[in-house]
Every structure is written in structure tokens, then in C-alpha cells.
Amino acid sequence: MRNEGGWFLLVSGVDTARGLAARHYTAFMAVMVEMHHTGCVPAVRAEIAAIIEHALADRHGDWRVSIVGSQANDRWEMKIAGPNAFERSYTLEGSSGEHEPHVIGKLVARMVGREP
Asked: What pLDDT digit, counting tens, does each position of 53-98 carry?
């Protein structure tokens, strides 16, 4: 657990593709980001989680973002669940640059109705 300017980030879980931590939780924000089978290094996973948390920072309620990679191709399935039965999903194409943290952040912001 580390303090990031008043926010606490707890990393747990295992990315079975690489045996690395894969879940990111914030203690004071109601945002949970899970990443599985993406093959990302921990620094990139942490950056993706931070950007997603920033995109959802001004939104009320509990939010869950799940990103699951595929061993068969370069697509990641991203699912966002929020309050009032909010559910969205999107396929992130690696060949289109959609595995980049800043691109994921912009997509999440658009999907929840907040332009970056």
C-alpha cells in the first residue's frame, strides 16, 4: 500500500500470464480496476489504473472496471460497471493503439459521459 497525495493504492491479485500483481484498489474512492492476462508490466498497469481512477474521480457511486486480455489475439475486453445498473463494454484493439494508458483513459471518460 502506498500513499499517493491522500489516496491509498492497494495492489493485490495475480496476472496468471506473468505472475504479477493485477488488481488495483483505492481506499477512499469507490473505484476498482482489475486487469487479467494483459501481459502488462506493473508500472503500466499502475498507470492504466491511475488514469481510469482519474476519469471516474468526479463520478458518484461504486465503479468497477475490468480489463481481460486474450492469449489468442491482441484484444482486451474492457467492462465498466457503475451505479444505477450502468454497464458498458468495449474491445480494446492493441493493433490500433488502444492498449496505451492515455487512450484507455479517454475511452473510459467517453463511455461514462465525461469528455477528457
From this structure: 999 988 888 999 999 999 889 999 999 999 999 999 999 999 999 9
CA-closest candidate to residue 77, choices 60, 18, 14, 87:
87
Task: Give the pLDDT score at 4.
Answer: 43
Contact between 70 and 101 under an 8 Å Cβ cutoff? The reply is: no
On the CB side of 13, how many CA atoms lie within 13 Å of its CA?
17
Q: Which fold has domain 2-111?
A: Double Stranded RNA Binding Domain (3.30.160)
The domain limits of the chain are 2-111
d(CA 1, CA 80): 24
The three grid cell numbers given for residue 94, joined into one nine-digit string:
492493441
Block residue for cell numbers 459521459: 113
CA distance 41 to 44: 6
What's the pTM? 0.74
